[in-house]
From TrEMBL:
One of its GO terms (molecular function) is diguanylate cyclase activity. Transmembrane segments: none annotated. This is diguanylate cyclase. Its EC number is 2.7.7.65. Gene3D superfamilies: 3.30.70.270. InterPro entries: Diguanylate_Cyclase (IPR050469), GGDEF_dom (IPR000160), Nucleotide_cyclase (IPR029787), Rev_trsase/Diguanyl_cyclase (IPR043128). One of its GO terms (cellular component) is plasma membrane. PROSITE patterns: GGDEF. It is an enzyme of class 2 (transferase). It catalyses: 2 GTP = 3',3'-c-di-GMP + 2 diphosphate. GO terms for biological process: cell adhesion involved in single-species biofilm formation; negative regulation of bacterial-type flagellum-dependent cell motility. Residues 1-73 form the GGDEF domain.
Length: 73
């Protein structure tokens, strides 16, 4: 929970994180793995945690369906 962030600030932070992870390959024993991240971001009226996680999860599945490595808010 990031109560003190505006939606705009949260989007900025998570988009920066997505780009950083995508541009930083992971190497182990000579094998390079490129990692991507998809994020579902719920921002709105506080509700019970189960409902908020469900809404974020739905947004995550939209991000994955749209090609991954992105943020859906």
């Amino acid at each position: 929970m990031l109560d003190d962030l505006t939606l705009e600030k949260a989007i900025y932070i998570f988009e920066k994180l997505i780009k950083k992870i995508a541009s930083t390959p992971y190497e182990k024993d000579g094998v390079v793995i490129n990692i991507t991240v998809s994020i579902g971001l719920f921002h709105g009226i506080k509700n019970d945690i189960k409902s908020m996680l469900s809404l974020a999860d739905k947004k995550l599945y939209v991000a994955k369906a749209n090609g991954r490595n992105q943020l859906v808010s």
